[in-house]
Amino acid sequence: MTVAGRSCERGSVTTARCWLSVLLLLLLPLFSQAAVRVAKVPPAAAIRNIDLQPGDLLETTPGKPFGIFDLLTLQLTASSVVPDALFRVRAGTRAKLILPIGRWDLRLEPTGDAALPGSAEWAYAQGWAHADAARFDEAEQTFAAAATAHPELAYWLWLGAAEAFEKNLDPDRTRGLRAAQAAVQNLDTQPKSSDMQRMEALRMFAQWQLLNRQNVEAAATLKLAMAFSCQCLRDAELLLLRAFLALREGRVDDAANDLRDASVPIDRLATQGTERALLLQRQATLQAMQRRGLDGANEADRIFADALQLTERVAPDSALLGRLAFNAHLHALESRRYADAERYARTAHAAFQSAAPHSLELGQARAALAEVYLRRTEYDAAEPLLVQARDHARSRAPDSYETLSLELQLADLKVRQRMFPAARAGMLALDQKLRDPNLLADTRLRSDLMLYRANLALAENDWSAALEHSLEASDAYGNEPGVNRWQSLLGAAQASLALNRHDDALRYAQLASSGLSETSGAGLLPAEAGIARARALVALGRGSEAVGVYEQSLGLIEAHRAELGGNEEVAARWAAQFQDCYHELFALLSAAGSVDLLLQWESRYRRQALQQLARQSNVDWSKLDTATLAPTDDSAQLSFLVGPKQTLVLVRVRQESWRVITLPQSRAQLGHDVDRLLLLLGSAQMDALALQEQSRKLFDQLLVPLWSELDGDPAHSPAATENWLIKNDGPLHHMPWSALFDGEAWLVERKHVRIWSPLARRSSQDMAEAVVGFGDPTSTADQADSLPGARRELSGLVALYPEQSQVWLGLDAHEQRVRSLAPKAAVLHFAVHAQSNLRRPMASLLRLAPGSSPAKTQDDGSLTAEEIANELKLRARLVVLSACASARGADLGGDGLQGLVSALHKAGADSVLATLWPVHDGATAELMMSFHRARADGQSPADALAAAQRQWLAEARVARNRSSLARWWDPGTLPAEALHPFYWAAFQVYE
Length: 991
Description:
This protein has 41 helices and 21 strands.
């Protein structure tokens, strides 16, 4: 059993009624036949100096019987200390025992005759044992049978049952409610029951009503309980429950008053108890809900930290700790501190797993962790957690609020994953359950279902249904606190926009924006409401007003990204969903001729990842990136911004002013054209004529307008300079620029192209001098994956740099050696197999030989992009990835491509040479040797690559020179299609 009573506060305010209750209860007959034994002493008891150990006996005076129910009575009525009559017997030695005010939480067991089956004390202990083992049906039957057999003790038995179910987190919330109600009803039949007994029974009844979400009934029960106030610590517990109800209903002023009153006796009498921890939890939640800006959020954080520290001392691995950590998670989630939210959710999960693995709360903790993943759009990580939580709850309480809410969360996840039939089926099944009038009458699930139906309709472009469901949800929420009503109006605004009801859209968006900006926990929704408002303004011809709204909303989005937690791939993938918002602003600024402001926002769009790194690193990335802001005298910058409807190109030649050119090509159209070009480039056997036609088409679409637009002043023409720095966007990230054809020559024959990377440091620090190469990391017996061209390639590297080079081949090219030597290299060359992963780009890898400890990820032979980015510290001026499709990655909006190239730039590399498709082993060896010869002559990476590609084309065009290339082929003759860009155009320089 657990002793769960409270003690009266000693002081001048003690009422006569309280003392009368004490006197009546102390005069009650003693019920047991022997002393009671201590079975377990919780940590809180030791902290509060309760000198007890398992095995100690408790008694009053020698020879007088004392049992479990006597101690319950004593605890309920004691003042500041237990009366002198209580003693502890340990190893035959009898000593006086002093117990403090507050919850003792002692686990006791009967002795002597009281321990025999059939006695009330035996049944009480058995009922608790069943509850501890999560055998709640048996526990209820045991308590009920004992209450029938011992009607004089029915109150204590039912009260103990209610507490046992609450302490062990019984997933059947109605069982504890029935037990608490039975305790209350039992007192009504006993005229000698005390006020404190009634207060305790009503407190437990109200607690179970709250657990069953019976808010109205709980309020009435708490009002009855407060009528029996005895000015003691027990009043504080009632106030804490009433404050919890007020917080649930959004009545922050009422909650503040109750918590202030509760703190007086707690601060005086229970500073180290669970009462204090619970008070701190409520105070932190109140502080978070009062929306007092950053200072209020910080104060809430401090109070939560104090509460967690105290609870981890007095009740480690307890349900109390789990609930506290869960609430801290909610606050961190609302404050957009997702790393903290994840940590608190894991703490809550561990506590519930330890205290009650059968509980519904364990599933809620899993769902809390899933919610963090959902906020980051990590749907694959969230789904198994939600499924586990749903299955766990369904197996224990299929019709509980927790189970049904998880069903709804899973349906909403299917919407986000665009699995619409599954989402619709889940919502339909839930709707059928919620039509039962006896099921969860007082719940918001029906309103939530309407909101999620609106989200489904929005995702499916069913605008009329989305508007209908959104307005239904808004009406259903009424004036409830929280974000849901405003989110419903946001959905109505989005649907109205699609239906060309622009005035309605603006009105709904303004209401949603105003409400969400004042609501705690709105997260990203104020930004989304602002975007909807801006789009409505544009549709109404008020573009100048929309610019400011876009800027404010994008600022909120960027701030939200900064708090996501997780890795950079997660942050970039999350941010990519808002790239159209940037492009909508770009179009407005371009139409208004606001070039300077357009340039500022183009820089913000492209440097989101850079800003993220600046917060995580001591390196001043803003200074290291200045090379892209001031091109050299003979260079041009071409910044492509590919939007959903059109493409903007920002052009700057030398030090002249920027110009903005609008192209009609949409993102979808360019994506189709670039994909077709890559298909034709993927094999030398593809139709060369079709390749040239497709290449010419893209040249005409993207480059001819630049010449035509700027032709009036040759000094401004991109044709006037040979060196181009291109900033890609959208599908252009995979564009092989050197392979564009103007009808007479390939672009590489006219320009030296380098690709801008937002993460390239362009560092001015002193570099190492070593040239380090790794190639063909296979054994001589493994012919299937061998790369003979790579071996010749690296042999040529040694010939070029005889004193500076270190080359490792075969099984010597293992991962540990790469980790050891890469940080010392000025030039790092990989002639290996690469594996790109477009779904999880940071899992893309370079295939090396395993080392001496292949079981360890640092030596398993798979050097992933994530490992490169986070574990390598490079000083290399150049990294060459002479491997298949090593430049491929996932397009994540303004951050560019995530993959091996971005990882190497983050690790510290200045320039990276990489490939857009699987390359030919022999041809690549020749091309790379030409490249390194040009580099040895002092050319930049972009110039050296252009020189190598031009040399290849020159030799391939002249039949008598083909023998100089033929040596790289087996069986020894150069194929007739050597001019095909498949052989020479895959490489690009990223810097």
